[in-house]
Amino acid sequence: MRRHVNLRQIEAFAAVMQNGTIARAGEMLNISQPAMSKLIANLEFDSGLILFDRVKKRLVPTEHALRLRDEVERIFAGVHQVESAITALHREGQGRLVIGVMPALSGNFVQRVTSAFLRSNENVICSVQAMNSQWVVERLVARKIDVGLINGRLDNPHVLVTTLLEHPLVCIMPKDHPLSYKTHVEPDDLNQLPFVAFEPHIFVRHLVEEMFEKHRITPSIVVSASAVLTVCEFVAAGHGVSLVHPLMVSGLENHLVARPFEPSIPFKFQLCRSADSKNTRLVDAFAAETQIIANDLSRALLTVMV
Q1: How far apart are CA 204 and CA 47, in angstroms?
Q2: 243-276: buried (b, 16+ CB within 10 Å) or exposed (e) per residue?
Q3: Domains of the chain and any CATH numbers
Q4: If DSSP codes are grouped into helix, strand and coil, which group holds residue 2?
Q5: N or C terminus of the chain: which is more exposed, having fewer CB within 10 Å?
Q6: Which helix (H) or strand (E) holds 39?
Q7: Structure pTM?
Q8: Residue 13 and residue 25: Cα distance in Å, rounded?
Q9: Long-range contacts of 108-114 (CB under 8 A, 24+ apart)
Q10: Under a CB-based contact definition with an 8 Å cutoff, are residues 100 and 273 in contact?
Q11: How far apart are CA 284 and CA 160, in angstroms?
Q12: Percent of the chain, pLDDT > 70?
């Protein structure tokens, strides 16, 4: 008498399809070869399908077996998704912090801050999501992230802002560049000089272009990029100089030389959070680590520039 197909039979079928033989499938499920053979035989009987042809003591999947395998794989994929969801729920019970960060700080800087934060908050899971500053603020208001690192342009009554580090832009250049022997760089030094620029939609680009226009400087832009890491890499490779905020150079201090630029071009990064955050303890701890790392990196870079 036929019975309903059970999960153990399906597991046995999947193991045989994956391993090719009854013996290896039995080892995978930690059951004997006779028990595995019985499970497959019962599956064929209960389903009314011939799933394997017996050819010289080998099991050769039939067309029915191949089609059934596709369905079984979908079932097991769903089970894995459920297991992942359960794991995520357990982790959320331990604490979770979602961090939105603008691309300019999404590399070495946010890695250093998050690593320092996790050393003091071992049971917390962090999710770091890179996006432009406007999206960081929008997702913060929508409660999709807990804390954000953005540029200095923000005006939203639902968001609390703390200045992370306000510092003038510095001129970065390859090591042994002629400008590296100067104590500071001036606009005239950049006239007709190969320059690595940010793309027009990047806020730093607007600040730099205003300075160029004011001082009637015409740099020779050789390449432009939207990512600060790309700008820094092109500078380090000798394609030109650029103007960036000190925190943007985090992690590349050994590949570049930085010099103060005068007259100064102020620029600041900000840490933002929801005005009514429900994750206050973790956000406070992350904000404290962020300020410490920002100050340390600033002092280190300024020491190198002296």
Answers
A1: 67
A2: bbbbbbbbebeeebbbbbbeeebebbbbbbbbee
A3: 7-92 (1.10.10.10), 95-164+268-305 (3.40.190.10), 170-264 (3.40.190.10)
A4: coil
A5: N
A6: helix 33-47
A7: 0.61
A8: 9
A9: 108/250, 108/251, 108/252, 109/247, 109/250, 109/251, 109/293, 109/294, 109/297, 110/149, 112/250, 112/293, 112/297, 113/286, 113/289, 113/290, 113/293, 114/286
A10: no
A11: 12
A12: 92
How far apart (Å, rounded) are the C-alpha atoms in residues 26 and 76?
Answer: 18
Report DSSP letters for 152-186, one per residue.
S----TTEEEEEEEEEE-EEEE-TT-GGGGSSSB-
* Residue showing tokens 């990064």: 269
User: pLDDT by residue (tens digit) across 153-185?
Assistant: 666 778 888 887 788 899 999 988 999 999 999
Q: Using CA atoms, how far apart are residues 60 and 219, in angstroms rounded to an integer?
A: 71
Task: Look up tokens 């995978």; give the residue.
Answer: 28
One-character DSSP codes across 119-147: HH-TT-EEEEEE--HHHHHHHHHTTS-SE
How crowded is residue 111: how many other Cβ atoms within 10 Å of its Cβ?
15
- How far out from the chain centre does Cα 101 lie? 9
Q: Tokens in use for 252? A: 């590349």
The percent of residues above 90 in pLDDT, for the chain, comes to: 31
Highest mean pLDDT: which of 13-22, 53-62, 168-177? 168-177
Take residue 156 and report the two structure tokens written for it. 């939203």
